[in-house]
């Protein structure tokens, strides 16, 4: 009986760890790529990744004191506080999620990692964020921005899936 009780308490903890693993990977990749840019490029420099991508994508080193994609340039301190609150809410919510909510944990982990990378590491330590991924006709961004965006997309897809499943279940109950 003790082994069953300990198995039950380990499973939720193990499922909770997914969020932290995803967040840690996002932070490491974000900080590593920013370090490469800071040490290998000069602010304002552009590197053509491949001649065939010249008009589509390049690496352009910029700094950003605002939000993602250069919006709200004077809001740096606000973003630090907001990111801390968001991270705290995600950590709390992660504990409350059922064990089978893996994709939601991945989405939240990406968002948490991105928020930490940009707003709890770069802004307080450097005063700005390094942006370098430049898809033409779109503002320059970084890995943390990408993680946040991908996390939001995954969460949106999960919400659509849940709404469709709920609608089918409700329709079945009404007809059945």
Task: Describe this protein's structure.
With about 180 residues, the protein is mainly α. Helices cover about 65% and strands about 10% of the residues. The protein has 4 helices and 3 strands. The protein has helices spanning about 1-40, 75-95, 100-125, 145-175, and strands spanning about 45, 55-65, 130-135. A 3-stranded antiparallel beta sheet has the order 1-2-3. Helix 1 packs across helix 3 and helix 2 (about 75-95) packs antiparallel against helix 3 (about 100-125). The protein is globular and about 60 Å long. The termini are far apart. Residues about 1-10 have low confidence and may be disordered.
Specify the helix fraction band: 55-70%
Uncertain stretches of 5 or more adjacent residues: 1-9
Shape: globular
Number of helices: 4
End-to-end separation: 41 Å
SSE class: mainly alpha
Radius of gyration: 20 Å
Oligomer: single chain
Strand content: 5-15%
For the secondary structure, the number of strands is 3
Order of helices and strands: HEEHHEH
Mean pLDDT rating? 88
Main sheet properties: 3 strands, antiparallel
Strand order of the largest sheet: 1-2-3
Task: Provide keyphrases for this structure.
three-stranded antiparallel β-sheet; single chain; globular; mainly alpha
Task: Write the topology of this structure.
Blueprint: H1 2-40, E1 46-47, E2 57-64, H2 76-96, H3 102-126, E3 129-135, H4 143-175
Antiparallel strand pairs: 1-2, 2-3
Short description:
Helix content is 67%, strand content 10%. The protein has helices at 2-40, 76-96, 102-126, 143-175; strands spanning 46-47, 57-64, 129-135.
